[in-house]
């Protein structure tokens, strides 16, 4: 298939490369020339404008850093929506607010009946490279089914959360819960160590008990407890504190809109905000463990 | 073996019954005659005083509601410590503060070199009845090994967290983390539902993603999502809000003693405290889901 791909950064780059590997013809565009060149090195062709990228594209995929960027791409001054073929499927993989996702899908449909879904991902850069991402989709059932063959080139799990915007909501609910159990795990480990327990032994006990969670299972935040995770590599790589802060901000905006109470989510946002403000925004999010460390009094 | 068992309530009763089933000779004592009668119905013999219960006992087990109760039993006016044979093994399964656990073990050792371990449990009344409890032990390695054969009659997993008191610390770290991810799960589900998502679909997505935790796996708090859990039975049975509040109180006391920061744990204590104060202390702890429900404005 002919696929236009917008945004070939840390996530989009390897995703586009996996589409090329699967035999698709990928026309890439990015505002950063170096990223575009990497996509070309991986076998994509470089489009010299957004409009040229979507020419003849059967599928349009975007992986952008914000709702404003996605809105600019599709509906801005040189927005591409008009240039996209009316039979094309549009898949926005960016993590953005649900309201903007719904607005974009409505604009696509109103203009010409084009079909758009939101399909934010879970799994990070590692999952993007390995082609094992989880796609959490929002949109009409038949559109999500049409997208499946393409998404399966980049991911191993494809969920439909509901109608347009629902993918975004499910993604931020998940990441809010992730932030909460990561911080909770860090607090519990520090409390145990402060009382003389071995962090590995305590981790094993809690993983085998009702404290079990994903952070303990595959992403232990205490350095040295688990191999091959950011905590054992000075919190390099992985999912950054700044990105977690962005997702927690989206969660709180969503909670505000629906008058939902999220006290744990709000506290998680405050703690990750403080952690970022202390200069840790570029570290992996499991570095919140350091926040609880005792230093000299 | 001859085993003295103190405290045959909701947890201790089925635990003592499982010891009887395994062929042990159990001498039970409880301040509540009806509970003691149930233990007798299950095959234990009723001791008419604590001192008589421990006569000739090779193992002494206690399952009491508080550190004060445990201290009273062993070291109070009619404390049983002196009456316990010097070669006996003492296993306190109560969930109490680590300092009292250490004090009791030290008193047992100082008095006569008797060996005592703390072995609080995880798994609730269901696990006690099924004999599938998790024991989280603190004490000397050889003492925990001696206890293993007896504990295996009542549980399926036996951990040693460290020296005396470490079992209590690991237990409260686990339960603090449990409270945090249960509340986080409830918040995330409510936020998703408030944006039109189906709680079952959202649960499946988060369980397959990085939000995964024990609450989503076996104890979903949203009514109807999962069968056979308290949320699908009006939050009856299970692990009570009052008990969770007790354990969170122990966690905060421990944090105070070690100058550890537990912001999520402290918030969990406040939320469960408010939930109990609103009249929900007797419900299962997953009923915190109700705390986030929208009612008429």
Task: Give me the oligomer status.
Answer: homodimer
**Number of E-type strands of chain A:** 9
Number of domains of chain A: 2
Distance between the ends of chain A: 62 Å
Instruction: Please describe the biggest sheet of chain A, giving its number of strands, its sense, and whether it closes into a barrel.
Output: 6 strands, parallel
User: Helicity range of the residues of chain A?
Assistant: 40-55%
Task: Please name the CATH architecture of the largest domain in chain A.
Answer: 3-Layer(aba) Sandwich
How many helices of chain A?
Answer: 13
Strand content of chain A: 5-15%
Radius of gyration of chain A: 20 Å
Mean pLDDT of chain A: 96
For this structure, the CATH topology of the largest domain in chain A is: Rossmann fold
Poorly predicted segments of chain A: none
Q: Largest interface here, residues on each chain?
A: A-B, 66 and 66 residues
With strands numbered from the N-terminus, the spatial order across the biggest sheet of chain A is 3-2-1-4-5-6
Give the C-level CATH assignment of the largest domain in chain A.
Answer: Alpha Beta
